[in-house]
Every structure is written in structure tokens, then in C-alpha cells.
């Protein structure tokens, strides 16, 4: 079942169960995916759908940080629930140990030895873990390993 089909199914369930917040988030994500389809003039692959979903999740996490620093607890709670709804559609996240293994393998593959080569390592690693790990954590692990 593709992400769009799953969203449609869950949207119907949310309507039946009168879950307004979940319905709203699903509609926003569905609209983003459909806008991307229109922009590219084709159906999206699973990877492209995941890219859109990751972008939506990242936007909400950024908003969460902003609202936290501004002391807007009402908005923090709303965004937090949206993040929880979106995370259901994300692939299973890699553990830190699994991620560290991938980081070390990638560093060996590209023969990186210093922080100056961090861009090369990140460029090689991100396609491997797309949607399965947070970029900030990956960045931190790569920096630790190259230090």
C-alpha cells in the first residue's frame, strides 16, 4: 500500500472517528504530496513520497523549537501532536548503534580522515539512510568519528 493510499484510508477512519486534529494533519500531508505530483507532472515514487513526508516532519520540528523558545505552550502541544501523527507514516528509525555502523562503513568507503571531508561523507551517507534517521544525529556522529 503506497503512502497516498494509506493516507486516504486513515483519512476516512479519522472522519468516521471524528478525530479533527488527525484529519487536519493527514489532509495537509496529502495536499503536499499532491502538490509535488502536480509540480513534477507524474505520480511520485515511494522515495519521493518519503521526501515530502520528511520535509513536513522537519518543518514541524523546527516550529516546535521556535514555539518552545518563545514560551508558547499552547502551540507546542499542537505541533507535538502533529509530529506524533506524522511519525506513524515514517519508516522505522535506525538505532544509534546501527547508524554508527553505517557512518563508520561510509567513512571507510570514501576514505575520509578529517573534518574537512565531512561534506563528502554526509553526501554519501544521506541517500543510504533517507527517512530512517535524523540528519542532525547523523551529522553529530560523523563529526565524532572524524575527530
Automatic annotation (TrEMBL):
Domain of life according to the entry: Bacteria
A GO molecular function held by the record: carbon-nitrogen ligase activity, with glutamine as amido-N-donor
One matching Pfam family: YqeY
InterPro entries, alphabetized: Asn/Gln_tRNA_amidoTrase-B-like, GatB_Yqey_C_2, YqeY/Aim41, YqeY/Aim41_N
This protein's name: GatB/YqeY domain-containing protein
Lineage: Bacteria, Bacillati, Bacillota, Bacilli, Bacillales
